């Protein structure tokens, strides 16, 4: 069992209907039928939403996504309509709220990998494949792949693991034409972002995207968030060393602490995880902001 240690109560705003509380985001619908997506400061690890927030995290995710959306707009349209706050929304929503098109979201996590690590490494060590794609011998944790690969997963409910699946399963679920578009667009977006990040001294090891279909039911639109430390593995390029776990800009600090003797918690247990110490919270917040500043070249205010 996993999920929320304590599920938050949604903020009630006149004119908005609360639809869903996710690991990080709260989703509403406005009177025009548009979606209102609010990125909280919640964080998750080991399929648990933790009891400790990371200050400013939701704003970093939102602002970084907007920065990336601008740089990807010639490759794929995105779901953002406006960043203006809905009338009556709390002041804390400023900088973390997006008004979005209502898409028919596809039930696939579109993962692109340029480097071998995480669940891909586990499968490779057992079978020399990732999602059914055969890879060369001799790769280790952190190895760069010969070319980026599309390794999709099926979306899971909060508290459950996403399930890596072969491409053929995606085609079966969404149709051959849409599956081909998903694979092509995922690799194109990853490749663009990888090059931009590397110019700024950051390796984009892997990332995941979510896509939906527009009103015509045929055109892909990228939704949710994009290329943030929550959905991507970012590594400092000058510290990259295959054969070990890489320093990162994501939640690895939290995962490492939760697995440590200091936390006193077993990730394999059904016991909810403990609160994070202030020192860990401060380190994670600093890493998120550093990723934002290095990628965008802008100072976090």
Automatic annotation (TrEMBL):
<protein>
    <recommendedName>
        <fullName>Phosphoribosylaminoimidazole-succinocarboxamide synthase</fullName>
        <ecNumber>6.3.2.6</ecNumber>
    </recommendedName>
</protein>
<dbReference type="InterPro" id="IPR001636">
    <property type="entry name" value="SAICAR_synth"/>
</dbReference>
<keyword id="KW-0067">ATP-binding</keyword>
<keyword id="KW-0658">Purine biosynthesis</keyword>
<dbReference type="InterPro" id="IPR018236">
    <property type="entry name" value="SAICAR_synthetase_CS"/>
</dbReference>
<comment type="pathway">
    <text>Purine metabolism; IMP biosynthesis via de novo pathway; 5-amino-1-(5-phospho-D-ribosyl)imidazole-4-carboxamide from 5-amino-1-(5-phospho-D-ribosyl)imidazole-4-carboxylate: step 1/2.</text>
</comment>
<dbReference type="Pfam" id="PF01259">
    <property type="entry name" value="SAICAR_synt"/>
</dbReference>
<feature type="domain" description="SAICAR synthetase/ADE2 N-terminal">
    <location>
        <begin position="19"/>
        <end position="270"/>
    </location>
</feature>
<comment type="similarity">
    <text>Belongs to the SAICAR synthetase family.</text>
</comment>
<dbReference type="GO" id="GO:0006189">
    <property type="term" value="P:'de novo' IMP biosynthetic process"/>
</dbReference>
<keyword id="KW-0547">Nucleotide-binding</keyword>
<dbReference type="InterPro" id="IPR028923">
    <property type="entry name" value="SAICAR_synt/ADE2_N"/>
</dbReference>
<dbReference type="GO" id="GO:0005737">
    <property type="term" value="C:cytoplasm"/>
</dbReference>
<dbReference type="GO" id="GO:0004639">
    <property type="term" value="F:phosphoribosylaminoimidazolesuccinocarboxamide synthase activity"/>
</dbReference>
<keyword id="KW-0436">Ligase</keyword>
<dbReference type="GO" id="GO:0005524">
    <property type="term" value="F:ATP binding"/>
</dbReference>
